[in-house]
Structure formats: structure tokens, C-alpha cells
Amino acid sequence: MDNTTALYIHIPFCVRKCLYCAFTSTDKVPGDTGGYVDLLLREMELRADALAVPLRAATLYMGGGTPSLLDPPLVGNIIDCAVRTFNLDLSAEVTLEANPGTVTAASLAGYRTAGVNRLSLGIQSFDDRMLASLGRIHTALEGREAFALARRAGFDNVGIDLIHGLPGQDCDHWREQLLAAVELRPNHISTYGLTVEEGTPFALLEAEGGLPLPDEDDAAAMFEDIADVLVAAGYEHYEIANFALPGSRSRHNQVYWKRGNYLGFGAGAHSFLREPRPGARWRNPDDIGEYGGSLASGVLPETDRISLSEKDAMAEWFFLGLRMLEGVEEEHFRAEFGVSPADVYGSQFQRLCASGLLIREGGRLRLSRRGVILSNRVFAAFL
Length: 383
Ligand code: SF4
Known about the structure:
A hairpin with a 2-residue loop joins strand 14 (358-361) and strand 15 (364-367). The protein has 15 helices and 15 strands. 42% of the residues lie in helices and 20% in strands. By secondary structure, it is of the alpha/beta class. It is globular, with a radius of gyration of 21 Å.
């Protein structure tokens, strides 16, 4: 039995809502974020007590929202609590997402001292015009400065996020962004295609015809450019949208793709436990008041618990595992589910291999280059 877990901590506060954002976050930031952190600590204690078998944390990821709105001592309190409740390893990967518009040399040094050893900077673009059109609070210069400050504060593991497919963006512009990213030499680069989410100001703009998004061909060409530029610059393309210098892959995110345990804390956070087999998922309420109210009465704030069927778990195993470019081992599937994957998905394998989306060799299955581009089509075959 796997008794390790990843821990995810959600900080649902932002200085201002970006125009495309559908994450659980509010711009109504309390004067004292310590009250929210107290709730997180309470939830971690309650969850640790409620587990039938104690779990040991191998990674901790503080995401948001904007975790870099927390003062460093509060971040230290979260890490200390993870050590106390989930025996967080001394060698654990501890990541904090930071918005370049919210960090200073002092806050970054404080996070490093508190025990954060990996920083994920939401740079998104190196173009002020694009950043403004997204409603981001930082400028391109602030993005570069935040990166330099992070290195100076002692972070030798810094990742950045970039978004492509922005309004008014063409392929040449996107290539320039990738080259600018490579010049900084971050350890990790995550690239996301802009999606217009329901209920966001971007959805409204799009409905009014005011969002000049790249057409499908350009969007596909931008996606293809990513691997060309980043791999040539020495980055390993290890997951559909993620690239890392050797030795810098995100340990935390690999837990998700390998269907490991993860426990989420905070408003809107998601959790998954493999035991009892074949596993269960649940989430916390998005509403901070509801989340806090539940904890105030000593009750874990979980909602929407789904116990997976064996069939769900098998499908998940494939569509999460295939996100990693090294692919999945058929023998691991057999060890996990007691059947050969070909007995369950033989016709899908045949079809996907014949159409050049999937490669099956040496007991492994992995996406082809075309399969990476059309990954949604591959994953749908397992549903
Ligand atoms: S900083 Fe991130 S979480 Fe906050 S509003 Fe912008 S996209 Fe959303």
C-alpha cells in the first residue's frame, strides 16, 4: 500500500480578478489572512485525525489564487503544520505559486527561510500589452525582476507559467515569448493555451465579438512551436504542457498524473485517495464562508465525494498516465487492476495506433507527437 501523499493548499485571494480567470479566488482580500490560514491548519489536523491509515507527505504545493499574498511567517505556519500532521519530509518539494506583482526581495527571502524550496512564477507573457489585456496586475519588467529576485533570494528551483493563444497573438509573437522565457533559464516552464471559461469577463467579450482569438490553425501551430523551441533549448518535454531542465520535473504534479494520493486543503481544493480501492475523490466548497463554517463546527468541509468504480479508475489510469510523454507500462496496469490492459482496451489501442496517435512498443504505451497535439481525442477513447 502506498502511504505517501501530496498536499495541496489553496489560497483563494487575489489583488484583482484577471479577465479570463475561473479559479476559486476572490479580490476581497481580508485585512488579516491569518484567519484563513488558521482554518487551513484546523483542516489539516482534522483530516490527519480522520485518516484510517496515517499518510506521509512527500510534496507540498501552495497554489491559488495568490499564495504570495501571505506573509512569510504564515507560509511557515502551513509548512510546520504539514510536518506535524503529515510528517512532511525534510527532502520534500515545497512549492509556492507567486504573482510577480506581489513579491519583494524581503518576502521571497522570507519564503525561502520558511522552507519553500521551489517557486512557480505566474509570468504568463513578456508583453505589457498582452498582460494588460488579460487583466494581470504585473508588467513584463516586474515579471523579469521577480525572477531575478527569486534567484537572489536563493531559489535554485524556479518555474514559470506562460499562456498562448492570447487575443491578438500570432505565431511569431508566441515564439518571441518562448525565446524570452528560455533566456531567463527557469528550471521549469508550464505552457497553457488560453481557454474562455463561462462566467468570466472574457466569455462576455467573446460573445460580443470583442475577443480576437487566434484561429484554430494558428493555435495548433503555436502549440507545436512550444516543443520545438524548448526542447532545442535543453528542456525535457515530460508532460503535454510541461517542460523541465534535467532533474527539475515537478514532483508534485507527477503525483496527479501517476494517480497517487493527494489531499487538498482550503476553499475549492480537490482530494483523491487510492484506498479503499479503487479510490475516491472529493472537493471542498468554493465559498470561503461555507468552508470556514464547517471547520468552526469541527466538521471536515468536504463535498461531492465520488467513490470510483473499477472502470472509472482504469480509464483515469490511462488518461492521466498518458499525459506524461514517457507513457505508461502495461505491466503496471496489470499489477494495479489484475487484468491485461489489452483485454480491457484492445480495440481502442488498435484504433489509436492505426491513426498514429498512440505508440505501443516494448510493453509501453505513449502518445505520438500527433497524439500530444490531439491528446483530447486520445483521452476520450478511454471514457
Ligand atoms: S492571479 Fe491567477 S487566480 Fe488570481 S485572478 Fe489572476 S488568474 Fe485568477
